[in-house]
Amino acid sequence: MEDRPYVLLSCGMSLDGYVDTAGDQRLLLSNDADFDRVDDVRAGCDAILVGAATVRRDNPRLLIRDETRRKARLARGVCPDPVKVTVTSGCDLDPDARFFTLGDADKLVYCASPALASARSKLGGRATVIDGGNPVDLKHVTADLAARGVERLMVEGGGTMHTQFLTAGLADELHLVVAPFFVGDSAAPRFVSDGVFPWGPQRRADLSEVRQIGDVVLLRYALSSRYEG
């Protein structure tokens, strides 16, 4: 058995593969029904990971919204919200971001070794700052999360995190939601960036489910032998 959590990647994108615009306003790619589906998936996970750029750009809460799901987690003896995790090279993070200030779940920051001391000084009162290596090594990150009791990890972006998890072969499942419009701006961020991926023309990913949710479509892919579909 691999010494890491089960890793589920979750992303929404436009028809032309973009996850946001190049401007300051956040692009909504989904609908209320799909947001509820994501909330349900979150509720079944032990931790949610986003990159530092996502913390800066989107200022996400990363909390379980539905009160019934929160109570069900409490009944299982766990915190109403999953552990929050981020990864950073230089710790350009605001300690007053909602990632740190909202919710009672643990907040973990995996930081590159050279910035570790400054990160602990900056965030020590709001999060546990952990040496992630230089550069941050996701295999080390996932092994450390497993040692902390995280059995199921949800990765919600951004593109750098998705690219790194996929190219490193650390993903077991992918939920990809496609919105019915185009962004049409090459300066905008995409689902993934350049990289050498385990799946290509000679090795296609296994599509396990296609589901229409209002005006968006969920594509669910099995990416490893650990897939729990």
SSE order and pairing:
Layout: E1 6-13, H1 32-43, E2 47-51, H2 52-58, H3 67-75, E3 83-88, H4 98-101, E4 107-112, H5 116-123, E5 128-133, H6 138-147, E6 152-155, H7 159-167, E7 173-178, E8 206-213, E9 216-222
Parallel strand pairs: 1-6, 1-7, 2-3, 2-6, 3-4, 4-5
Antiparallel strand pairs: 7-9, 8-9
Report what the structure shows.
The protein is an alpha/beta fold and 229 residues long. It is built from seven helices and nine strands, in the order βαβααβαβαβαβαβββ. The chain has a nine-stranded mixed β-sheet with strand order 5-4-3-2-6-1-7-9-8, sandwiched between helices. The two termini are 18 Å apart.
Order of helices and strands: EHEHHEHEHEHEHEEE
Strand order of the largest sheet: 5-4-3-2-6-1-7-9-8
Shape, please? globular
Strand content is 15-25%
Distance between the termini: 18 Å
Mean pLDDT: 96
Radius of gyration: 17 Å
Structural class: alpha/beta
The proportion of residues forming helix, as a percent range, comes to 25-40%
Kindly summarize this structure in a few lines.
With 229 residues, this protein is α/β, with parallel strands linked by helices.
Keywords:
single chain; 229 residues; alpha/beta; 9-stranded mixed beta sheet; 7 helices; 9 strands; 26% helix; globular
